[in-house]
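User: I'll paste a sequence; please echo it back and then give the predicted structure.

Assistant: Echoing your sequence first, then the prediction.
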Amino acid sequence: MAGDGVAQNVRVTIIILAWMVISISLIMYNKWLLSFAHFGFPFALTSMHQLFAAMMAHAVCGAGLQTPPKLTFDQVISLIIPISVCSALSLALSNQAMVYISVPFMQMLKAAIPTFSYVIGISVGLEMFAWRLLGVVIWIGAGVAIASFGEIDFVLHGFIIALVGLVVEAARLVLSQRLLQGQDIKFNAITGIYYQAPISFIALFVPFMAFEFHDASVVMGQIPGHLVANACIAALLNVASYMVLKETSAVTYGICGQVKDWLNILIAIPVFGTSLSPIQPIGYGLAVLGVFYYKRLRTVIAKEVADAERARTDDDEAPLVRR
């Protein structure tokens, strides 16, 4: 029995390490293509990712390995399309920002996503306002601001594009939360992509044809092997993410994600010759600590609300005692 437990732990560790390697490789590959291989066409690159992801998900589901939930046309229109469009724009904007800013700086900015998600969640009524959470959100924002202030190769328009992309990604997360909380629909990483990726591909393909096709088609003919390999890695990352979520918990996935982000920063520095100021790791470290505390505090507050609701229900159901 002990041997089985060790074998399972080794298997999970290998899956997590493989996921990290694939994810980091994709980010480095994207940066190389966008900034060093002169393929500065984010809509083209991201649409290829979504096309290959859609093919992978439909192949898996078509083979009977996964069963996507049945959705009505209205559910696709009202729930899936907004998430898919936000996902497409978030990925395209992030890739566009990577043309101008470094991988470490982009990873540091991503720590601000909980801040944007909380603000958007409150505005649409999915999050409950709490002063404690607001304080942690400000903490995270201050850490990201310190990291941004210390950026050596600061490019304003790249920074703005990255922030817009992160706000769109936060909106996608809020919409996904609304979908999962408000509907009796069960998705995983594969079945979600089954519906989302084709719509995201269409959302990206239209601006690609309108703005990038003429110039991108010339470069695409010069590096077709790299583009196909890059898209295959993107599709493989979806499978790896599904495996990690299946074998671990959401908490473990989040912690491993933070470790992966740090590794992205540390690896990108020698690979691309990126320089960091001494203040940037401090700011990013503060933001990451804030993210961990934010997630923990949300759990604590949710438990407090549930306990208060349960106590109120018990009081309402208690029999009246006559004297």
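The radius of gyration is 22 Å. Residues 279-317 form the longest helix (39 residues).
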